[in-house]
Automatic annotation (TrEMBL):
UniProt biased composition (Low complexity): 706-737
Example of a GO MF term: cyclic-guanylate-specific phosphodiesterase activity
TM ranges: 20-44, 51-69, 89-112, 124-145, 165-187, 199-219
InterPro entries: Cyclic-di-GMP_PDE-like, EAL_dom, EAL_sf, GGDEF_dom, Nucleotide_cyclase, Rev_trsase/Diguanyl_cyclase
Protein name, entry field: Bifunctional diguanylate cyclase/phosphodiesterase
Key words of the record: Membrane, Transmembrane, Transmembrane helix
Lineage: Bacteria, Bacillati, Actinomycetota, Actinomycetes, Kineosporiales
Length: 750
């Protein structure tokens, strides 16, 4: 044949040689002479039957009908094996009939069924070879133990039940061993431990069927009328197997969407990664999270939320091909698993295209409870082996990528190691924090206090409790170093209780010193969802004999809006107990005047981002002024955070702010040093009011004294303080070296 001016021989395409192909070929080659030998013996000795013909007919009928009735048996992995009810009758035939008859009785319905189902020719050929070898092994074992000839069976005696049991076990082991080996080789992974595990599992189901064969023959020797009774345990095995399979499927699928659940998804991911040979195409995992689902659920109710989840699950499943696994992990989280074949597009581009296609299926509005909703999702992508090799690690990387997508306003994001904070150092820090919380006597976790001063008089009216960690090796750690770790590891609740305990105890110390100083503690989002918190706080206050009015619990707008209904209920119980509530970092989150009214808060803390530079930024000054006016109109006390210079203090005084907090008064200090500073502040206050009049127009000494507040128990009278103490200012650290408060997370007990 000539091709483009050159001659070439046309050669047939030879399929590649695989371990699976070699094994199937070997099984067929072993079975072929056994098949020929047994059929030949059948025609040479056609009358060689060991029991009466009626029993033989019944057994053959049982084999044929049993092959038509299959029971699916749940396997250890995600699959299921087909167990035929013909097994009992086949084994009984092996012990009393020529081997050729056994082969014919089983082969004919088996081959007909496989051809009818359109299976590849290799499937019925292998199945026939499998049964020939299994039957020959069982017949040979029985003949050897019972002293019978291989091709000439005779009457079955009750004394041969033991030999039949051993032969049945051999049949089961050979038959199941061949099947399990093929399954393992088809998965490109042959492991002895897995073979043994699968054999044990299938033996528990097929074992009773096999054990019935000798009993069947013993009963026929006694009376044929008892044979129908043997169908009862066989039917029971079938029913139990069906129930077990249904139970397994129910345990592995989400009842709402009928999609695979988290455990089943991880199992499938494990199998996919295990079956993936070195250098094969990558595997992609996608983590899908619906945006603002919680708001929909809270507004329209859980039934509407369930309806939406069902619709989303159906859309995702419909948009995916048969090779793509879509699962519901829980809540509003879904996951996708797919292998990325070699093609024109790079694997990552294929994954992104699939993610975008899945995301686009959600663009069409959905009607829930009579409300038309637009649903968006954030999708994170991680690839194996590029990003991770284990199933749990790969899903975690996709989860991290999903949060990157959320941070970008939704859409699709690929895992980026440079933006992954889940480092080894972070895990070590988490372990060390857990140990520190477990040893409260070590005093590693301690509370620093930053004063809150009356804007007009300079009097210290309270202090905010800020947690610090005296790490034995890392030194003093600010809250921003470990609060995010505590939040992600769910240690934040325990840490907040530690801070509350120390702060309330310190309030008692101040009371004993004659000081009426309140303490403020930040609450995390987890505590706002914990209905036990009011009882825990009340127990601490009662134990330390501290009036509830001396405790202020600070929450951010974002923590409240995470679960507003639960937060409102918890805060209402706290406030009913006399505890004060403050909104921290006001103006930076999802502000809601309606929730301000419902929460009945006592205090608004204006975020430092508006305070710092307000003297040079007119917009910030307008925002601060408006917030102060709003708070006063609602009857709230206004606190300005981040006051770092006297000029800002003066502006806040002019605007009518009630309390200031910041480095211009004093950075956070541990309790003993705070007490020392407080005594100096009290002593310096009158001198500062007379000598350093920077915060208000000059006044006479008599005016200053007249302006001093009257003595009120239990706090001693303090002259007006109008500027930070000079001595304190000299030791004030620079901005770069201060222990900053933690970055805003979902909440902070710092």
């Amino acid at each position: 044949m000539t091709v483009s001016g050159s001659t070439a021989m046309l050669r047939p395409r030879i399929p590649p040689v695989t371990p699976l192909g070699l094994f199937v070929t070997a099984v067929c080659l072993v079975a072929l002479p056994l098949l020929a030998w047994s059929l030949g013996a059948l025609f040479v000795q056609p009358t060689a039957y060991g029991v009466n013909r009626l029993v033989i007919v019944l057994l053959v009928l049982g084999v044929v009908l049993g092959e038509m009735v299959q029971v699916e048996v749940a396997l250890r992995d995600a699959g299921a094996a087909a167990l035929t009810l013909s097994t009992t009758f086949t084994l009984a035939l092996i012990f009393v009939a020529p081997l050729g008859l056994v082969v014919l009785a089983q082969a004919i319905p088996l081959v007909v069924d496989d051809v009818k189902r359109g299976k590849h020719w290799s499937r019925p050929v292998f199945n026939l070879a499998q049964y020939v070898i299994s039957a020959a092994a069982a017949r040979g074992t029985f003949s050897l133990i019972a002293g019978q000839e291989f091709f000439t069976p005779r009457d079955f005696a009750s004394s041969e039940v033991g030999a039949a049991m051993v032969a049945s076990l051999v049949y089961l082991l050979v038959n199941m061993g061949l099947v399990v080996t093929v399954i393992a080789l088809a998965g490109r992974q042959l492991q002895l431990s897995r073979l043994w595990a699968d054999l044990r599992q299938q033996f528990t189901t097929a074992g009773p069927m096999v054990a019935m064969a000798p009993v069947f023959l013993a009963v026929t020797d006694f009376s044929l009328w008892l044979l129908p009774l043997l169908l009862i345990p066989i039917a029971a095995v079938q029913a139990i197997s069906r129930l077990a399979l249904e139970h397994r499927d129910s345990a592995r699928h989400d009842p709402l969407t009928k999609l695979p659940n988290r455990s089943y998804f991880l199992l499938q991911l494990d199998q996919t990664l295990a079956a993936r040979p070195s250098g094969a195409n990558p595997v992609a995992v996608m983590f899908i999270d619906l945006d603002h689902f919680k708001e929909i659920n809270d507004t329209l109710g859980h039934e509407a939320g369930d309806s939406l989840i069902r619709d989303i699950g159906h859309r995702l499943r419909s948009a995916a091909t048969a090779e793509v696994t879509v699962a519901r992990l829980g809540g509003d989280e879904f996951a996708v698993l797919t292998e990325l074949p070699a093609g024109e597009q790079p694997p990552l581009a294929q994954a992104i295209a699939l993610a975008e296609r899945l995301g686009s299926t959600l663009d069409e509005p959905v009607s829930v409870a009579g409300v038309r909703l637009e649903v968006r999702a954030s999708i994170g992508i991680a690839l194996a082996p590029q990003h991770a090799q284990g199933s749990a690690d790969l899903l975690a990387k996709a989860d991290i990528a999903m949060y990157l997508a959320k941070g970008n306003g939704g859409g699709v994001a690929v895992y980026d190691p440079s933006k992954d904070e889940n480092t080894t150092e972070r895990l070590v820090l988490l372990t060390e924090l857990h140990d520190a919380l477990g040893r409260p006597d070590s005093d590693q976790l301690t509370v620093y206090y930053q004063p809150k001063c009356d804007t007009h008089t300079g009097q210290v009216v309270g202090a905010e409790a800020l947690v610090r960690w005296r790490h034995p090796e890392r030194g003093l750690l600010g809250a921003e170093k470990f609060i995010p770790v505590a939040e992600t590891a769910e240690l934040i609740t325990q840490l907040t209780l530690v801070v509350l305990e120390q702060a309330i105890r310190q309030a008692r110390v101040w009371l004993d010193q004659g000081r009426w100083l309140g303490v403020a503690v930040n609450l995390s989002v987890r505590h706002l969802a914990d209905v036990r918190l009011p009882e825990q706080v009340n127990e601490m206050l009662t134990r330390h004999r501290v009036p509830p009015a001396l405790l202020t619990l600070e929450v951010t707008e974002n923590t409240v809006m995470t679960d507003p209904h639960r937060a409102v209920a918890v805060l209402a119980m706290l406030r009913a107990g006399g505890v004060k509530i403050a909104i921290d970092d006001y103006g930076t989150g999802y502000s809601s005047l309606a929730y301000l009214k419902r929460l009945s808060v006592d205090e608004l803390k204006i975020d430092r981002s508006f305070i710092i530079g307000m003297t040079s930024d007119d917009n910030n000054q307008i925002i601060v002024k408006s917030t102060i006016e709003l708070g006063h109109n609602l009857g709230l006390r206004l606190v300005a955070e981040g006051v770092e210079d006297a000029e800002t203090w003066r502006h806040l005084q002019t605007l009518g702010c009630d309390v200031i907090q910041g480095f211009t008064a004093q950075p956070p200090l541990p309790a003993p040093e705070f007490d020392d500073w407080l005594r100096r502040w009290d002593a310096d206050q009158r001198e500062a009011a007379i000598v350093d009049l920077r915060l208000r127009p000059p006044a006479t000494t008599s005016e200053l004294v007249a302006a001093a507040p009257a003595t009120s128990a239990p706090s001693a009278a303090r002259p007006p303080k109008v500027t930070p103490a000079t001595t304190a200012a000299k030791t004030r650290p620079s901005s770069s070296s201060r222990h900053a408060r933690p970055a805003r997370q979902t909440g902070k007990p710092a």
